[in-house]
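Bench log. Compound arrived from synthesis this morning; before running ITC I wanted a structural hypothesis for how adenosine-5'-triphosphate sits in the protein. Inputs:
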Amino acid sequence: MLAIEDLHVFYGGIHALKGVALQVKRGEIVALLGNNGAGKTTTLKCISGLVSHRRGRITLDGRVLSGAPPHEIVLRGIAHVPEGRRIFNRLTVRENLGMGAYLRSDAGVSADLDRVFALFPILRERLGQSAGTLSGGEQQMLAIGRALMASPRLLLLDEPSMGLSPVLVERIFETIAGINRQGTTILLVEQNAAMALAVAHRGYVLETGTIALSGTAAELAENPQVKRAYLGD
Ligand code: ATP
């Protein structure tokens, strides 16, 4: 579904991605692991068109995505849940969810709103509340809900567990697995490698801008290097 080949990104003189290559197949959850600064967020931003690359190619369903503006990439079926959630604090929950569907004119919007409420019932209770007054966990649910309102085929999730209590982390990961079972393909960036590998089908490990390892989630979870560096064994 998504193919990235030889991706090179520079921030001024910093060579942040050095030939990243990865693939996401339809129906998969693919985890992208790596330490701070490895280039995980940059990879997701490139896919969304928020950061441009100097070399390489990104394709979706065999068609080139590279160079398309972010709104067109959303229209082609990719939605991004950014690191730090980036919800619109002063808008209500309802307005935030509406922003996720901003580009849509099809008849499926209200069904997707019901789907978001089924996944996150608390959001229905908070509809008229300013998003900035929600708890951290509720804000993460809203950020995921907003992305789902774009009706994506591919969902990019950047550190969904960040700052959440262990119980909420479990719930968010259960929901991620549920969203995938409903048919949405997911590329998941996570510091919490144990949780990410528990829900993912396959994974990649990014080290200083290069893919250092890849394999099924089970292979990576058993890999001594991954165990030592990312699973705390
Ligand atoms: P984190 O988990 O800390 O977000 P990451 O793996 O997502 O890490 P990136 O945020 O993609 O890593 O950063 C990759 C490299 O690019 C790092 O060296 C970082 O300092 C650098 N970088 C990221 N954004 C910028 C920017 N806007 N300007 C300059 N350098 C940047």
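What the model suggests: The CA atoms of residues 44 and 156 lie 7 Å apart. The chain has one domain: 26-52+68-230.
ITC booked for Thursday regardless.
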